[in-house]
Amino acid sequence: VEESYIMIKPDGVQRGLVGEIISRFEKKGIKLKGLKLYQCPTELAQDNEHYKDLQSKSFFPNLIDYITSGPVVCMAWEGVGVVASARKLIGATNPLNAEPGTIRGDLAVQTGRNVVHGSDSPENGNREIALWFKEGEVVEWTPVQEPWLKE
Ligand code: GTP
Ligand code: MG
């Protein structure tokens, strides 16, 4: 199944945007199957496979400080095409380039404080969910609205 790891970053939590952000995915009609508030330890963030592609970047230390500066909300969402669809809802990496109507376009102003993460491929969706969630934290269920979302 296609799934996306969506994470509300510490700025989103501190700014009281948790409900607003979850609501946008929920209303779209994709399925929530994992949800927790989590304080990521610095050592874990540094070694974490999650940002391994960015380890050589000059902003990497800032990114680690940012992501460990407070609790994050970890989420697993499932649906056909959910990875691309979630990235559309999230908007461009730099909030100044993100379209109005997207989360970053509406709620953020800087790349270093862009409130939310979304997986960039179905492979990374599966991989990141396995990385951030423990066994038993991801729940398989069938929403009653399903026949009203899919013909
Ligand atoms: P994510 O959904 O968070 O992965 O963002 P993305 O896929 O739109 O961007 P990317 O994976 O390239 O970068 C991951 C995160 O690193 C971004 O969301 C930013 O929080 C941070 N980042 C990327 N580029 C910069 C930068 O130039 N400066 C700073 N301060 N942070 C950056
Ligand atoms: Mg990314």
Defining key terms:
151 residues; alpha+beta; Alpha-Beta Plaits; 4-stranded antiparallel sheet; globular; binds magnesium ion
Give me the CATH superfamily. Answer: Nucleoside diphosphate kinase-like domain
Number of strands: 4
Through-space gap between termini: 18 Å
| Share of residues in strands | 15-25%
CATH topology: Alpha-Beta Plaits
How are the strands of the biggest sheet laid out side by side? 2-3-1-4
Rounded radius of gyration (Å): 15 Å
Highest-level CATH class: Alpha Beta
Kindly state the mean pLDDT as a whole number?
A: 96
Binding site for ATP: 9, 59, 87, 93, 104, 114
Family: Belongs to the NDK family.
EC number: 2.7.4.6
Protein name: Nucleoside diphosphate kinase
List strands and helices in order, with pairings.
Layout: E1 3-8, H1 10-14, H2 18-28, E2 31-38, H3 42-47, H4 60-67, E3 72-78, H5 82-90, H6 103-107, E4 116-118, H7 122-132, H8 146-149
Antiparallel strand pairs: 1-3, 1-4, 2-3
Residues 54, 59, 62-63, 93, 111-112, 114, 117-118, 120 line the site of guanosine-5'-triphosphate.
Question: Can you put this structure into words, describing what you see?
Answer:
This protein is of the alpha+beta class and 151 residues long. The chain has one domain: Nucleoside diphosphate kinase-like domain (Alpha-Beta Plaits, 2-Layer Sandwich). It contains 8 helices and 4 strands; from the N terminus they run βααβααβααβαα. It has helices at 10-14, 18-28, 42-47, 60-67, 82-90, 103-107, 122-132, 146-149, and strands at 3-8, 31-38, 72-78, 116-118. Strands 2-3-1-4 form a 4-stranded antiparallel beta sheet. The longest helix has 11 residues, at 18-28. The mean pLDDT is 96. The chain binds guanosine-5'-triphosphate and magnesium ion. Residues 54, 59, 62-63, 93, 111-112, 114, 117-118, 120 line the site of guanosine-5'-triphosphate.
